[in-house]
Amino acid sequence: MANTPEPLTTEAAQVVSETDLGAAKLLEPSALWLEPYQWVSVAMLVLIAIMLWKKVPSLVTGGLDNKIAEIKAQLDEAKALRAEAEKLRDEYTAKIANAEKDAEAMMENARHEADAILEKAEADSKALVERRKKMAEDKISAAERDAVDEVRATAAAAAAAASRKLIAEKHDAEADRKLADEVIAEL
Asked: Where are the annotated coiled coils located?
């Protein structure tokens, strides 16, 4: 048996067990009556016990809980921001709709005012033309009256001058006395 391995022994091993691997037998080390897989299990139990004693799971869960709380707060904040953004969007949509209605109403009002101004301007211009026509007619009438008055005054002045001249030519002191006596007698 040239290929058969030699049994291994360690100084720490007090008990050596044999394992049958087919044709060859291997010796596995053991200490304090425990096999290697049992030592791994004991080490894991000790590690878990130390972790429990140092409260590592509560630290881990506390950290996870804090992280969960932060994420939840961020989600709540995001929901609040989204709700606020939607509210602002709806508000501005309503404002835009109102602004469009107001603009349309203002345009309609401006059209009505422009029409009213045009109608008033037409009426005012007609009234102005009528007033100016009447003023022109009044000026013409006044000029005619002034001309007639001037002609009358000129005629009266000419008649008075002619009367004076005639009276002066045909009327003497005797006629004046006679006329004065008649006027006095009538009184």
From this structure: none
